[in-house]
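BUG: 3D viewer hangs when loading the predicted structure for this chain

Environment: internal workstation, default settings.
Expected: structure renders.
Actual: progress bar stalls at 90%.

Input used:
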Amino acid sequence: MVSRIKRLELKLERALWRIRLVAVLPVLMSLMSSVATFILGTKQILKALFMLNSDSTLKSYIAELIGSIIGGIDLYLIGIALLIFGYGVYELLISPIDPARDGDQLGSSLLDIRDLDQLKEKLVKVLVVALIVYAFQTMITLSINTPQSLAFFSLSVLLLALSGWLVAVGHSQTHAADGRHH
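Structure tokens produced before the viewer hung:
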């Protein structure tokens, strides 16, 4: 009787273990979305480069040109976040990515995710930078006509600086803690 229950338990556990492979779907969608955002970012930057043929020196033209380039960079950052998510889910739920474990692979530290906290930390860092870049893109074209708009603009710059500082402080504290544990 005990061996029958044990066999049933083992079959159930094997089935549960195989169900984790459904995580391949978000991995694939994330990686395809990453490629899509890289393509969109490239198109955005190419659009800006083609705008250079115009002889306009108007302030609005320059702001639109720079905004287009920054928009492309923001799309690249979102693509990087999607890559990190896809690789992280794969490593956490399916299998370690062996080539990423080789010491000679470039970018392996960014994509080397061994636990959920690392995945969360890396995603937060990239997404905060993407939000800062997006805010910067928006602020370039912002018209400041009133003292109130200047105050909001200044507050936005202060909040962006604070968020960048908090990410940097969190990064340095994480590395200091890693050094103490090793």
